[in-house]
Amino acid sequence: MSIEFDQSAIVPSNYHPMISEKKIQERLEELGAEITADFKDKRPILIGVLNGGFIFLADLIRYINTDVEMDFIRISSYGNARESSGHIKILKPLSADIKGRPVIVVEDIVDSGLSIQFLQNMLSAFSPSELKFATLLHKPSKNKTNIKLDYVGFEIEDKYVVGYGLDDEQVKRNLRSIYYIA
Ligand code: IMP
To answer: Could you give phi then psi for residue 99, rounded to 5 degrees?
Structure first.
């Protein structure tokens, strides 16, 4: 994968580098190896949480060395505000039948934790054989829940972050590295 592509034209001056593209890819290789070892021959279903989780899921599955299925779910996120309201709606339901199947939910970021708490309640009602959570980023100081995160890319401090799937009022998801806004 090229790490030479220059995106400075779409990086405003109040964006500051936090995690480089190279660091993200290196960490994904480690997470992929862990998932491969934990799910070898179990054919898990990876559920990407839209919109933010799409790039993480797309890259992560390419570091997994066993067969996986995938699906997407879309839940409402913050809209244009930067704080979770806690009122979450399903905007696109699952298509896959997860009953009796191992499932890994793939999130971009766990902030208040309310989204994954909602997903845990909702998905466990379908009786998967296992329900695990992968998140690229985690803000431990903001997490109000005690849900176990099984695969965490990076723990970060409480800053608003963008890029690599994460948006700033719907744009900047295409940035290859992660930046914080200050
Ligand atoms: P939570 O329910 O508060 O854990 O937040 C979950 C969702 O809020 C994430 O899946 C993101 O879509 C969004 N979010 C939380 N923090 C950030 C951030 O720093 N940048 C961009 N999106 C965020």
So the answer is: -60, 125
